[in-house]
Amino acid sequence: PQVEAARKAIRAAQVERYVPEHERCCWCLCCGREVRKHLSHGNLTVLHGGLLEHLASPEHKKATNRFWWENKAEFQMKEKFLISSQDYARFKKSMVKGLDSYEEKEDEVIKEMAAQIREVEHSRRELVRSVLEPQAVPDPEEGSSALGSWKGTNSQVASASQQPSYLDLPPAPELDWMETGQPLTFIGHQDTPGIGNIHSGATPPWMVQDEEYSSGNQQIGPSYEEFLKEKEKQKLKKLPPDRVGANFDHNTSTSVGWLPSFGRVWNNGRRWQSRHQFKTEAAARSKQSHKEK
Q1: φ and ψ at 93, to 5 degrees?
Q2: Closest CA to 56 of 6, 5, 94, 2
Q3: Where is the region Disordered (predicted)?
């Protein structure tokens, strides 16, 4: 299907804007290697240009002949995987036409964008002009009311101009507490450390130590010994609860004679014979030790 799509692009080459997907490759069975599917240069990409360039190359033609000879494929199918020099020249001409048409489309898009920008700029200027223009003159029918309001406004302006300004007013009398003769001294802002917010220089709340942890370095979490004990408990939980020695306390002290004495190691013969032999040997050793004393 990729070869068929590439053959259709011989008469009408398609030119698009470059995107990372145009870096895809396809596998050539005859040559046994990857081939670029599209042909990209700068910001433009010619669809199926790389595959057509490979199909028209002499190396691909030699590899195709060798592939057909080794695999004994149908001879009629071989022409579908080859591009003649005439077809490739026709593709180059269509590629030039495609580039020209693409540039024309891009110019049209740029012109449309410029027209939209000019329209927006014109509307913005009209809006600014309407805001900055003075108020419209009132209609003649409303002349009497407008004249009255204009006279009232002028009279207010005249009365305001006749009034003395605040600069001409006499100075305000000083307060009584200023006349006592006891001046006050400004000693500045008193900021209590640790109280306030971070903008006034106080310690952030996440930097303040809690009272329960400020006394000493308290260990966080279990100790290593507690961790080992808990690990041993978790290991014992996986074992069957009815096993032998499940309830045995390993911490209890055991005496030396906790293991019953069976005489000696049972090598051969009957078990009672080895036991009696051990007893006789032990009695003989005890007698000999008494004689030596």
Answers
A1: -65, -45
A2: 6
A3: 131-219
H/E run at residue 226:
helix 224-237
Q: What is the C-alpha to C-alpha distance for residues 88 and 55, in angstroms, rounded to an integer?
A: 9
Report the 10 Å Cβ neighbour count for 67. 17
Total residue length of the chain: 293
pTM of the model: 0.35
Q: Are 13 and 39 in contact (CB under 8 A)?
A: no
Determine the Cα–Cα distance for residues 276 and 259; give it in Å rounded to an integer.
19
**Distance of CA 282 to CAs 97, 200, 292, Å?**
117, 94, 16
Tokens, residue 84: 């003649």
Compute the half-sphere exposure of residue 199: CA atoms within 13 Å on the CB side of its CA.
0
Query: Which residue shows structure tokens 């942890």?
Result: 213
Interacting residues of 11 by C-beta distance below 8 A, sequence separation 6+: 90, 94
Identity at 131, one-letter amino acid code = V
